[in-house]
Amino acid sequence: MEKKKVAIPLVCHGHSRPVVDLFYSPVTPDGYFLISASKDTNPMLRNGETGDWIGTFQGHKGAVWSCCLDRNALRAASASADFSAKVWDALTGDELHSFEHKHIVRACAFSEDTHLLLTGGMEKTLRVYDMNRPDAAPRELDKSPGSVRTVAWLHSDQTILSSCTDMGGVRLWDVRTGKIVQTLETKASVTSAEVSQDGRFITTADGSSVKFWDANQYFYFIFSTALVLLKAMICPAMWSQLHLNQSLGVNLSLEEKICGFMYLISSLVKK
C-alpha cells in the first residue's frame, strides 16, 4: 500500500506579535519572495521557497495590517494602523515614500505595471498613488460601502477589487469611472483576495472557505476547511498548474497541494 505523503510545514520565526498578512511576489530572475505583515510594526522579507529571512522594514509606529511587493520584487509597500502607507526599497530596506491618511490603512497593492499604489482602510476610501509622481495628490474613487479590508488589481489594471470588514462580497471597480460595476457575492466578509499572475483567477477567503473564481466569467469553486481563515494564497510556482472548468471543477491533481498549502498559513488563522 502506498504511504500517504505528509506535508511538513516550514516555520518562519522572527515576528514578536501575530502575523496578519502574507504576500508572495511573482517569480523573478532571482526567485520569488515572501513578505509578512505583523502587529509588531515591522514587515519582514523572506526567500519565498525556503522561508529564510532577508530583511526587516523599520519605520512604522503602529501595527502593519497589509504588505505587498511589486511585480519585480524591487519595491515593497505596507499599510499601517499609524495612519500611513509606506513604500520601501526591497533591496536596501530604505523607506522611499510615506503616504499619510486620516485613519487606519488596512490594505495596499501595486498595479501590474508597478506605476500605481492602491490603498484602502477605515476611511472607506480607495486611493491611487502615482509612483512616478509620489508628491502629487492621490486619485480617490467613490466611497466604499464599508471599511476596506482587502484590495487588488485585475484586468491589466483596468479593474480594482475590494472587500469590506463588516459585509460580504467582493466589489469590482471600473478604474476609469471610479465606480462599482459588479459585486461577487459571498456569505461572510472576505478577508483576502488575490489575483493570479496571469490574471485568469481570483482567490478569496471568507469564513472557513476558499473560493477560486474565473476572473472573466466569475463562476467559482469552493474548498472548505475546518478553520476560520484570514488569508488564502497560492504559491507562485503553482499558478500555472491551476485550471478551472465550469462543468468539471478545479484540476483535481492540485487538490491535495492546494489544501495542504492552506494549512501552511495556519499562523494567520483565528482559532
What does this structure look like?
This protein has a domain at 19-196: YVTN repeat-like/Quinoprotein amine dehydrogenase (Methylamine Dehydrogenase, Chain H). The chain has a seven-stranded antiparallel β-sheet with strand order 13-14-15-16-17-18-19, with no helix packed on it. A four-stranded antiparallel β-sheet has the order 1-2-3-4, with no helix packed on it. A four-stranded antiparallel β-sheet has the order 5-6-7-8, with no helix packed on it. It is globular, with a radius of gyration of 18 Å. A hairpin with a 5-residue loop joins strand 2 and strand 3 (44-47). It is built from one helix and 21 strands. With 271 residues, the chain is mainly beta.
Summarize it.
It is built from one helix and 21 strands. The protein is mainly beta and 271 residues long. It has a domain at 19-196: Methylamine Dehydrogenase, Chain H.
Mean pLDDT: 86
Figure out the total of helices: 1
Q: Which class of secondary structure composition applies to the elements?
A: mainly beta
Q: Element order, helices and strands?
A: EEEEEEEEEEEEEEEEEEEEEH
Tell me the strand percentage band. Answer: 35-45%
Could you tell me how far the N terminus lies from the C terminus, measured between alpha carbons in angstroms?
A: 35 Å
Beta-strand segment tally: 21
| CATH architecture name of the domain at 19-196 | 7 Propeller
**Regions with little confidence, pLDDT below 50 for 5+ residues:** 239-271
CATH homology superfamily of the domain at 19-196: YVTN repeat-like/Quinoprotein amine dehydrogenase
Transmembrane segments: 218-239
WD repeats: 57-98, 98-139
Family: Belongs to the WD repeat STRAP family.
Keywords: Membrane, mRNA processing, mRNA splicing, Repeat, Transmembrane, Transmembrane helix, WD repeat
